[in-house]
Design brief:
The complex is a heterodimer of chains A (113) and B (115).
Chain A lengths: L2 E3 L4 E5 L4 E3 L2 E3 L5 E7 L5 E7 L5 E3 L5 E5 L4 E6 L8 E8 L7 E2 L3 E6 L1
Parallel strand pairs in A: 2-12
Antiparallel strand pairs in A: 1-4, 3-9, 5-6, 5-10, 7-8, 8-9, 10-11, 10-12
Chain B lengths: L4 E3 L2 E4 L5 E6 L6 E8 L3 E9 L2 E5 L6 E5 L5 E5 L8 E8 L10 E2 L3 E5 L1
Parallel strand pairs in B: 2-11
Antiparallel strand pairs in B: 1-3, 3-8, 4-5, 4-9, 5-6, 7-8, 9-10, 9-11
The chains are: A mainly beta (113), B mainly beta (115).
């Protein structure tokens, strides 16, 4: 079955530290991959998406992700965390099934001053 | 351009009742997808409508249904509510083309509480 795994339901970093949120997919066919962010009491906002044009994808707010087929991964990184980055982050995949996204369980990011 | 809007934002119902949620997509978007978000199951795909037709469906019981109107607005209905239906229901709209990388834009959600 197609699925997405996000390692770590909670990640805590200090302000200014590197942010690394992990995402792995399970499929022999590489999917299309997305990272979304959700702030409290809000919907999801797209950070970036992998469309096979380039393996390193840059998104909004300084985030980027690298698609690694050999590792079936699409980890999200940001060089320097900011307090405003505290939110829940979701990795999602799409497999040519129209408007159907399969989401990971989410990772809550906390940023300590 | 206005974003995706969902009404109502909050809803409280009792078991056995039915409920209808509404979603207005971004102007020009023809696809509307619905998702259920709960602490235990996370985000799960319910169904997608494109040009008034259900194009894709998740693994939910028949109590969950939807429809789309000619102006692309969509409604979702849940009949015979159960306690487990308490969730945040998110609607997302997209242009609706055949590309799997079509970006979905999410609304703020409707928080449904079933007592």
């Amino acid at each position: 079955a197609q699925s997405v795994t996000q390692l770590g339901s909670h990640v805590s970093v200090s302000e200014g530290a590197l942010v690394l949120l992990r995402c792995n997919y399970s499929s022999s066919v590489p999917p299309y991959l997305f990272w979304y962010v959700q702030y409290p009491n809000q919907g999801l906002q797209l950070l970036l998406k992998y469309t096979s044009a380039a393996t390193l994808v840059k998104g909004i707010n300084g985030f980027e992700a690298e698609f690694k087929k050999s590792e079936t991964s699409f980890h999200l990184t940001k060089p320097s965390a900011h307090m405003s980055d505290a939110a829940e982050y979701f990795c999602a995949v799409s497999y040519n099934q129209g408007g159907k996204l399969i989401f990971g369980q989410g990772t809550e990011l906390s940023v300590k001053p | 351009k206005a974003g995706v809007t969902q009404t109502p934002r909050y809803l409280i119902k009792t078991r056995g009742q039915q409920v209808t949620l509404s979603c207005s997509p971004i102007s020009g978007h023809r696809s509307v997808s619905w998702y259920q978000q709960t602490p235990g199951q996370g985000l799960q795909f319910l169904f997608e409508y494109f040009s008034e037709t259900q194009r894709n469906k998740g693994n939910f019981p028949g109590r969950f249904s939807g429809r789309q109107f000619s102006n692309s607005r969509s409604e979702m209905n849940v009949s015979t509510l159960e306690l487990g239906d308490s969730a945040l229901y998110l609607c997302a709209s997209s242009l609706g083309g055949s590309s799997p990388t079509d970006t979905q834009y999410f609304g703020p959600g409707t928080r449904l509480t079933v007592l």
